[in-house]
Amino acid sequence: xxxxxxxxxxxxxxxxxxxxxxxxxxxxxxxxxxxxxxxxxxxxxxxxxxxxxxxxxxxxxxxxxxxxxxxxxxxxxxxxxxxxxxxxxxxxxxxxxxxxxxxxxxxxxxxxxxxxxxxxxxxxxxxxxxxxxxxxxxxxxxxxxxxxxxxxxxxxxxxxxxxxxxxxxxxxxxxxxxxxxxxxxxxxxxxxxxxxxxxxxxxxxxxxxxxxxxxxxxxxxxxxxxxxxxxxxxxxxxxxxxxxxxxxxxxxxxxxxxxxxxxxxxxxxxxxxxxxxxxxxxxxxxxxxxxxxxxxxxxxxxxxxxxxxxxxxxxxxxxxxxxxxxxxxxxxxxxxxxxxxxxxxxxxxxxxxxxxxxxxxxxxxxxxxxxxxxxxxxxxxxxxxxx
Amino acid sequence: xxxxxxxxxxxxxxxxxxxxxxxxxxxxxxxxxxxxxxxxxxxxxxxxxxxxxxxxxxxxxxxxxxxxxxxxxxxxxxxxxxxxxxxxxxxxxxxxxxxxxxxxxxxxxxxxxxxxxxxxxxxxxxxxxxxxxxxxxxxxxxxxxxxxxxxxxxxxxxxxxxxxxxxxxxxxxxxxxxxxxxxxxxxxxxxxxxxxxxxxxxxxxxxxxxxxxxxxxxxxxxxxxxxxxxxxxxxxxxxxxxxxxxxxxxxxxxxxxxxxxxxxxxxxxxxxxxxxxxxxxxxxxxxxxxxxxxxxxxxxxxxxxxxxxxxxxxxxxxxxxxxxxxxxxxxxxxxxxxxxxxxxxxxxxxxxxxxxxxxxxxxxxxxxxxxxxxxxxxxxxxxxxxx
Lengths: 387, 387
Known about the structure:
Two copies of one chain form a homodimer. With about 375 residues, chain A is α/β, with parallel strands linked by helices. Chain A folds into two domains: about 180 residues, Rossmann fold (3-Layer(aba) Sandwich), CATH 3.40.50.1970; about 190 residues, Dehydroquinate synthase-like - alpha domain (Dehydroquinate synthase-like, alpha domain, Up-down Bundle), CATH 1.20.1090.10. Helices cover about 45% and strands about 15% of the residues of chain A. Chain A is built from 14 helices and eleven strands. Chain A has a seven-stranded mixed beta sheet, sandwiched between helices. In chain A, strands 7-8 form a two-stranded antiparallel sheet. Chain A has a two-stranded antiparallel sheet with strand order 10-11. In chain A, helix 5 packs parallel to helix 6. The N terminus of chain A is likely disordered. Chains A and B meet through helix 3, helix 4, strand 7 and strand 8 of A and helix 3, helix 4, strand 7 and strand 8 of B.
């Protein structure tokens, strides 16, 4: 590890500075997997989050027996009225129906505006429960307890909430900042390898597009990260959240710099959309999207081939796909055209102009088409490496 | 009219001061009913509202042929791509289905985040289209063009948006401030008398709970207001918006003072809920709710009988109901318990403690039950007058 990124202790929470919507991210070991011995932690957390009313604990049917029930028992013991709300597990359920399920349960339990929604789960639970909190009686408090690596480094920072629509991913949603975030590293022990790798894709994204030092650290630390080493994980999560928090703090509503966080996402969203959501994990689609965005950047002469080579190598080491699916140029364009960064029909891409440095730019159709139509698809990786 | 409430000219817009979410309310004569001669007005308005992208013009099937089509033609002529979205007319359609209709049309037209939603209609169109704007791609611009008196004096100020749920009115929604509001007085000429009176209920509310001078002016001006005199209307609308804007500016998210705007609404919402929404107009329910809240205030010794008498008389002169429907105490309590002002199961009421002066307070069950169980219901009015 380089001197300018010292290993933090897990007991120092990370501030997301957003004025009167600021909040803390706590990175800890055990509060979710072993709640009975963390009563003081949760008690302090609820106080810090201004939790005065009842708790709606939203989780999925995989996590409810694993963590949810014990947490609800502890929260009840701490004196809260707890309304458990269990939704199905999976990206394909991230829709209006899941939102209704949560709202219905909150209304049936007669929760008032003092209620707090606790989202225990991955990105799906966090996004939908967060949107439910944003829109319940015009907004109630919300605490994120992300249990996947992807949710810990991405969706738990920044306040983006929402649901998918048949015509596009995350098309309906709101900005709603949580009052606090609890990252329990021990929840990653049971995360399937494929989902864990998908989270690493976003971690790599932060390094590749925003912080060369962090990228270099990741190249060195990847074997330890793959073994889910607590120390390496703590730094990887903390530095990812720091990088995102710094950008979100300067551009909460994504009018400018925040778009930089979407490196790889314009292509990635198209992959997810074209495959009908769910066959590709978000992080897998972003991994391929980053390779495509890097190839596009190289084609435009913004970045050297060595950077593309290092990105492809690091993604592959992390166990991520690097070759795009077989789609026609028309299919790519159709699925990219609903990208939320688009303005007046013009697509905008996050391009890297050096390791750890990025910019948002429109791209000429010919350059884009060259990347979209690379055949065989594997040539794109070669192109990213060889250009 | 008293010297401290001079008649404003219609060309001076009213500022709703909310920091970087501030906006102007334009009170004018003709831009909606006769758009071709108001091209310059609309052009300036769109510039003021930062409207750079496409327009989604949401209106209902009554207003589309009356105003919507001509407005869309003008907006097209001004160079905008216009997506007209027509929804059914009526409070019973203010639900998730109408929200979906608007979102689906916006997505099918591939509107991006630079789009602006123009809500042309009464409170239903304004609330649902505003909520659609709040949640489309996590929030797009929104312009209110209220065409009912109720919407002009109430829902066009303050940024409350939302839909009804089978378990409660406005239970799902968001705070989302418009970029601008256009009040065209001439749209009131075709408003049915019953809807017009319902709007006057909210006007009277501002006077009774916040501004004794305005209340006294209303007693004097009511005959002219009933004739829809432009001068009297301009002052009534402007003063109502000013009073609301001043409170909203000091408490945008309704954590404190904003609750004062709900005088008569706790009882009123229960009347609307118990009757299934739609058989009572919102303003009619609020009128009766104010009589009940005034009677409760008198019962607690907060206000003199003469104030209650003047309130009942002014409401009756405006053509509004003043007697509550026949509900059991249990029914009242059930419908009031989902009131968004409730905290931890305790109802809070807006009470008047003088003409033009109000406070939020919890109330003892015995005092509340005395008002809820007044039999015959007409005795409540007598009680309000006689206590």
